[in-house]
Amino acid sequence: MTTMRVAQIPGPKRPFEIVERPVPQPTPGTVRIKVSACGVCHSDALVKEGLWPGIQYPRVPGHEVAGAIDAVGEGVTHWKVDQRVGVGWNGGYCGRCDNCRRGNLFACETQQVTGISFDGGYGEYMIAPATAVARFPDELPPVDAAPLMCAGLTTFNALRNSGARSGDVVAVLGLGGLGHLGVQYAAKMGFNVVAIARGKDKDPLARQLGAAIYIDSQSQDPAAELQKLGGASVVIATVTAGAAMSAVVGGLAPNGTLMVIGAAESLQLSPVVLIGGQRSVKGWYSGMSIDSEDALAFSARTGVHSMNETFPFERVNEAYERMMSGKARFRVVLTMK
Ligand SMILES: [Zn+2]
Ligand SMILES: [Zn+2]
Q1: How much is the pTM?
Q2: Which of 2, 76, 279, 317 has the fewest Cβ atoms within 10 angstroms?
Q3: What residues sit around ligand 1, an ion, with C-beta below 5 angstroms?
Q4: Conformation bin of residue 205: beta by default, left when phi > 0, alpha when psi is -120 to 50
Q5: Could you say which ligand is closest to the alpha carbon of residue 98?
Q6: How far is the CA of 103 from the centre of ligand 2 (A)?
Q7: How crowded is residue 113: how many other Cβ atoms within 10 Å of its Cβ?
Q8: Averages of pLDDT over each 10 residues, the chain, 337 residues
Q9: Enclosing H/E stretch for 207
Q10: Sign (positive/negative) of CA torsion 25, 124, 36, 53?
Q11: Collapsing DSSP states into helix, strand and coil, what is residue 38?
Q12: Distance 130 CA to ligand 2 centre (A)
């Protein structure tokens, strides 16, 4: 195989085009991955719509990659051909800058993002820095693993770093691509899980995913309902509406935390509510490759599943529109032959 097909964005706001390119050779410190499946994440709109400064086009998006190592570059000692691996949003780290030296790898000064700084997984092959690569368990099919590389990792990692303890009330705000995974993880982690979303019709789904309680934010006041339970130790906010986040802050228990992982434009809160209850608002970066490994292994062990709509790679434009419509139940995944 000397050529491959990729789905590239030729420039901002242009449709995907499927083109043939030579199969790239791994450079020192990188591996080549034969892609089996790649999730279509809302953040791919940053490439498609030209919203990320400094992107060089054409660009191949895709940061929910699942496949297998196909070749390793010079100096790569700990990865082997045929290992099943994934790549997520984090595009590796240098290990030498001050942030890396302090252990804050996510804040590495090189700040590479898969599918934005370099070509991602919407193609038959991709090159990834070895530091960005995560192993995934044999029992997970690639289509199941792909969405866990971003949506799964982000919710899993935010929850396990939230400070909540087993038995605590933990609320998941939103029941979409992130939220439907968040509820499952929170339940498997042993929290008393409350799901908050709009509309009564989501109640059965929330309970099926593992929520003990469902709050319909259209007919109920979520803050008041959470307070009836003694307040939430943590609310994981997966929605992209700032107003919906603002509406739950009053439902936090003393010392409770609003963990923000949904990229809302702005958020309004009362400092008095924060001060009076020593409450905090915290953002959470998705995670590093080792966190992805933990998320994948946890998912395989506990049966956490992403619900996916799959599209063959050739139908990438349709898959993207489906994801952007907000109607997909719940993640959209491209599959390669
Ligand atoms: Zn993503
Ligand atoms: Zn660094």
Answers
A1: 0.96
A2: 2
A3: 41, 43, 150
A4: alpha
A5: 2
A6: 9
A7: 20
A8: 95 97 97 98 95 96 98 96 97 97 96 96 98 94 97 98 97 96 98 97 98 98 98 97 95 98 91 94 96 97 97 98 94 95
A9: helix 203-209
A10: positive
A11: strand
A12: 14
CA of 74 to the centre of ligand 2 (A): 20
Rounded to whole angstroms, the Cα distance separating 186 from 172 reads: 8
DSSP β-bridge partners for residue 85: 67, 135
Buried-state track 291-319, b at ≥16 Cβ within 10 A, e below 16: bbbbbbbbbbeeebbbebeebebebbeeb
Residue 94, C-beta contacts closer than 8 angstroms, at least 6 positions apart: 100, 108, 109, 110
Ligand nearest to the CA of 131: 2
Encoding tokens for residue 289?
């490759």
Q: How far is the CA of 27 from the centre of ligand 1 (A)?
A: 25
Q: Are 252 and 246 in contact (CB under 8 A)?
A: no
Q: How far is the CA of 169 from the centre of ligand 2 (A)?
A: 36
Give the number of other CB atoms < 10 A from CB of residue 15.
Answer: 12
